[in-house]
Amino acid sequence: MPEQIADDVVVTIEYILRNAGGEILDQSEGDDLLTYLHGHQNIVAGLEAALAGKRVGDVLKVAVPPEDGYGLRDPDGVRQLERSAFPPDANLAPGDQFTAELEDDEFVPLYVIAVDEEFVHVDLNHPLAGETLHFEVKVVELRDALANELAHGHPHGRHGHDHHHH
Ligand code: ZN
Fold first, then answer.
1. I want to staple 16 with a disulfide (CB 3.0 to 4.6 A). Which of 1, 11, 27, 43 is the partner?
2. 157 alpha carbon to ligand 1 midpoint, in Å?
3. How far is the CA of 148 from the centre of ligand 1 (A)?
4. How far is Cα of residue 79 from the mean position of the Cα atoms in its chain?
5. pLDDT at residue 166, rounded to an integer
6. Exposure string (b/e) for 74-101, b if CB count within 10 Å is 16 or more?
7. 149 CA distance to ligand 1 centroid (A)?
């Protein structure tokens, strides 16, 4: 088992994420911890960098600026799309995330911010863009990645047993 966090190590952490105002935005709950593959951009860059070299039991507080988190907010990212561009049975609600294909075969995530009769209002910015992310993290477990996890660039669960299809 790896002694400390380095590239290609599967890391399991407990975490709490707060915004600058101290409001909890996200957290691991109970046994539902976050497992990621270090060095493969599974988590925001600023948090990944802060975890390098840490050991099981280490607790850290990290403030991640937007540039190392979900990016700066682009005011041009808010768009309105014709409701008719979506399947009629699509159940669109604020907070939904989906992927749209632009003209140049580029795929981008979109976040629904509002829906009305005629338009779906979306934001290309991640909901946490522009936010400084305040993480409190405890390192729970480290293990070596399996070959197929390295090939995929992500872990298959805390213990490497989770099955999925690509
Ligand atoms: Zn996989």
1. 27
2. 10
3. 7
4. 22
5. 54
6. eeebeeeeeeeeeeeeeeeeeeeeeeee
7. 6
- Continuous H helices in the chain: 45-51, 147-152
Residue-wise pLDDT tens digits, 14-45: 999 999 999 999 999 888 899 999 999 999 99
Residues of the chain with pLDDT under 50: none
Distance CA(60)–CA(147), nearest Å, equals 29
Count of beta carbons in the 10 Å neighbourhood of residue 133: 22
3-state secondary structure of 68: helix
User: What φ, ψ does residue 147 adopt, rounded to 5°?
Assistant: -60, -40
Q: Which pLDDT value is given to residue 40?
A: 97
How far, in Å, from the CA of 38 to the mean position of ligand 1?
14
* Dihedral sign (CA 32, 46, 52, 39): positive
Beta-carbon contacts of residue 47 (< 8 Å; ≥ 6 apart): 62, 64, 133, 135, 137
pLDDT at 162: 83
pLDDT at 165: 57
